[in-house]
TrEMBL record:
Domain Pyrroline-5-carboxylate reductase dimerisation residues, every copy: 162-266
Pfam families: F420_oxidored, P5CR_dimer
Name this polypeptide is given: Pyrroline-5-carboxylate reductase
Annotated EC: 1.5.1.2
Domain Pyrroline-5-carboxylate reductase catalytic N-terminal: 4-99
Protein species of origin: Halobacteroides halobius (strain ATCC 35273 / DSM 5150 / MD-1)
Amino acid sequence: MVEKIGFIGAGSMAEALITGILEAELFSADRVYISDINQERVESLHNKYQVQIANNNQELVKQVDYIVLAVKPRVVKKILGRVGQQIRPYQKLFSIAAGVTTKQLEKHLSTDVPVVRLMPNTPALIGSGATAYTLGQAATEDASRVVKEIFSSVGLIVEVKEDLMDAVTGLSGSGPAYIYMIVEALSDAGVNVGLPRKVASKLAIQTLLGAGEMVQELEKHPAQLKDLVTSPGGTTITGLKELEKTGLRSSLYQAVESATAKSKELRGE
Ligand SMILES: NC(=O)C1=CN([C@@H]2O[C@H](COP(=O)(O)OP(=O)(O)OC[C@H]3O[C@@H](n4cnc5c(N)ncnc54)[C@H](O)[C@@H]3O)[C@@H](O)[C@H]2O)C=CC1
Ligand SMILES: O=C(O)[C@@H]1CCC=N1
C-alpha cells in the first residue's frame, strides 16, 4: 500500500500485526510507524523490523493515514483526549482495544473522522489471524475496503454488528489462549500415560492442526467428524465419556461467557 500506517502502543498485539503485514508485504517497513511510552520497546521493534519511530503519539498522528490504537482499554480515553482533535477526516482510526465502543472513541474526534473497531487475534503474526470489525458512524465503504485489505493480509476477516464485538472478544480474541492451554494439557496427559515430552507435544500439536484443517476443509459438522474417529466400544468413546463427565463443553461455554462479560466491563461504563 502507498499509504502509511501507525501503531499507538507497540505491545504484543501491535507486534503480531506488524509482523503479519510486513510478511504479507502489504506495507513496507518505511511506511509503518510506532509510538509507545516504553522507549526500550520502541527501539527493540525498530531494530527487529526496521519500522519508523514516532517521538510521541502526536507526531505519529501527523505522519500516517491509518492510526491503529493498540493500547490497553483503560488508557484509550487519556490518549484520545490528547490527540483526538488532531485526527483529520482523510485519516482513519482503527481501534483494537477490547470493549471500547465506536461511540466512546468518537466522543474525542471530529464528527467526520472514520472509526473502525476491530478485534483481531495473535495468530495474525503468522497470517492465520481471525478478525471481526464494526464500522463507526462516519466510516463508509471506503473504510470497510481498507480494513478488509489490511486485515485479510493476516488471516480471516468478518464484519459484525457492534453489539457482537464483546462476544467476538470472548471467542476468537481470547480463544488462542484457550487452545494453547488445551495443547499443553494434551501434552501433559500424554506424558502422564508414558510418552516422552517431545513426542507428546509433537503429537498434541499435529492432532490439533489436523483436526482443525479437517473441520475447515471438509466443511462437515464437527460431530460428524467426531463420529468417524469413534469405533463402537473403542478407545475414543471412552475418552469422550470422560470429557463429558468432567465438563469440557461447559468449561468452554463458561470461558467464552466470562471473557465476553469482561470485555464489556473493560469499557468502564
Ligand atoms: N493480546 C491480544 O491477544 C489482543 C489484544 N487486543 C487489544 O490490544 C490492545 C493491546 O493489547 P496488548 O498488545 O496485549 O497489550 P500490551 O500491554 O502488550 O501493549 C500495550 C502497549 O501500549 C503502550 N502504552 C501504554 N500507554 C501508552 C501511551 N500513553 N502512549 C503510547 N503507548 C502506550 C505500553 O507501553 C505497551 O507497550 C488492548 O486494548 C487489547 O484489548 C486485541 C486483540 C487481541
Ligand atoms: O486479554 C485481553 O484483554 C486481550 C483482548 C483479547 C485478547 N487479549
